[in-house]
Amino acid sequence: LGARPPTPGADRRIHWTQRMNCRHCATPLHLPLIDLGTAPPSNSYLEAGTLDQPEQRYPLRVMVCEHCWLTQTEDFARADTFFNADYAYFSAYSASWLQHAERYVADMRARFGLGAHSVVAEVAANDGYLLQYVRTRDIPCYGVEPTASTAAAARERGIDIVEDFFGVRLATELAKAGRQADLIAANNVLAHVPDINDFVRGFSLLLKPQGVATFEFPQLRSLVEGMQFDTVYHEHFSYLSLTAVNHIFAANGLQVFDVQTLPTHGGSLRVFAQRADTGQHAIAPVVAEMLAKEEAVGITRRAYYLDLQRQAERIRQDLVAWLADCRQQGLRVAGYGAAAKGNTLLNFAGITSELLPYVVDRNPAKQGKFLPGSRIPILGEDHLRQDKPDVVLLLPWNLKAELAQQLAYVGEWGGR
C-alpha cells in the first residue's frame, strides 16, 4: 500500500506515499490531515459466532485537496462493504435527532409553502425518522435508502422507499417516472458517497425547476478545530467545508443560496441549493460571509491541516492513561453508545474489554453483538442498572446533553 509501519509516537504522515487523486477535481493529493492506522468498518458489528474469525481492516487515512479543498478518506474498499443489508445505524433511536427532524419539516413547510400539491423526497431516508413527520402533515413523500435493514424499518412506518443507491442513474429513472420533487432532504449523507460528483448531479436532475435541496453535514471546521478525529471512519468519504461544497455544487448543476449553522453532530452546516439553470431564490448574504470566514480561519491554506495528528495522539494517550488509572483505583467503567465515532476512538487507542468491559446501547439491532476491532460486547441498558458501574464513558459525545438526562439514574448509586 506504499506505507511503512509508523514509529510509535512519531508523526505518521512522513511515511505516506500517496497515489490518490481528488474525488471531485482529480487533482493529485499530497497534503495529509490524519492517519488513524487500520480499522474495520465502524458499523460492521460482530456476531458471537464470528469472533473466532479474522476481521477485514482497512487503512484509515485522510487527505486534503489543495485545489478545491475537499478533505477525503483514502479509497480502500467499495461503498457496499459499509452500507450493506445488515447496516445497523438507525436514526430514530435518538430523541434529540427526532426533534431536530420534526423542526426541519415544520420549518421547510412554512418557508417553501409545502402542501398536498408538493412532493418531498429524502435521500438516505434511513428508518423513516424524518419522512414520518412529512407524512403526518399529508404531504406526498418518498425516500431513497440503499440499506435493507433501515429501509424495512421505514416501510413499517408507512414510508414509500426506493431501495437503491442515489446518483445520476437513479435520479434519471425517478424523473422519467414523474417523481421529481419540490424539496429533497439529504441529512448526513453527502459525506458518505464515494462519487460525490455523480451524487450531487443527481439532485439537479431530480429537483423540479423551482425545487430546493437541503444538505446537512458535520462541518470540517468542527473536525479540525474541535479535534473531532473520531468522526473519521471509512463510511465518511468526505469532510466538508462550505468552500468545497460550493465548488462541487457549481460543477454539478446546483447553486448554493443559503446556509445555516447547526449544533448537531458536534457542529454542522445546512446548505440550501437550487438548480443553477432554473432556480429563482436570491443568494443570501450569509453565503459570502461564511466563505470569507472559512478563508480567514485558513481553510484554503496548508498550515490549517497540519496539527490534528499531534492532537489526536495526545488525546489517545490521555484516554488510555485515564482508563488504566480507573482500573488501578478499582473503579468499574462501562461505555455507553455503540456509535461509529466510539469505534474509531477505541480502535485508534487500542482499547479492548480489558479496560472497557462492555458498552451499552438502546438499539436492539446492536445488542448481543460486539464492537468491530475492539470486540467489546454490546449489552442492553438493563445491564447498566444491574451492574451499577462507577463511571459511564459516553462515546457519542455529540449527544452528551440528551444522554446525561437519560442516564441521570446512574447518580442513584453514586456513579458518574
Molecular structure report:
With 416 residues, the protein is α/β, with parallel strands linked by helices. The chain is built from 12 helices and 15 strands. The protein has helices at 95-112, 131-135, 148-156, 168-176, 196-206, 220-225, 242-251, 285-297, 308-328, 340-349, 381-387, 400-406, and strands at 31-39, 58-64, 71-73, 120-123, 141-144, 161-162, 181-187, 207-218, 238-239, 254-262, 268-275, 333-336, 359-360, 378-379, 391-394. Strands 6-5-4-7-8-11-10 form a 7-stranded mixed beta sheet. α3 links the parallel β5 (141-144) and β6. α4 (168-176) packs parallel to α5 (196-206). Residues 1-17 have low confidence and may be disordered.
Question: Brief description of this entry?
Answer:
With 416 residues, the protein is α/β, with parallel strands linked by helices.
How are the SSEs placed, and which strands pair?
Elements: E1 31-39, E2 58-64, E3 71-73, H1 95-112, E4 120-123, H2 131-135, E5 141-144, H3 148-156, E6 161-162, H4 168-176, E7 181-187, H5 196-206, E8 207-218, H6 220-225, E9 238-239, H7 242-251, E10 254-262, E11 268-275, H8 285-297, H9 308-328, E12 333-336, H10 340-349, E13 359-360, E14 378-379, H11 381-387, E15 391-394, H12 400-406
Parallel strand pairs: 4-5, 4-7, 5-6, 7-8, 12-13, 12-15, 13-14
Antiparallel strand pairs: 1-2, 2-3, 3-9, 8-11, 10-11
Helix pairs in contact: 4-5
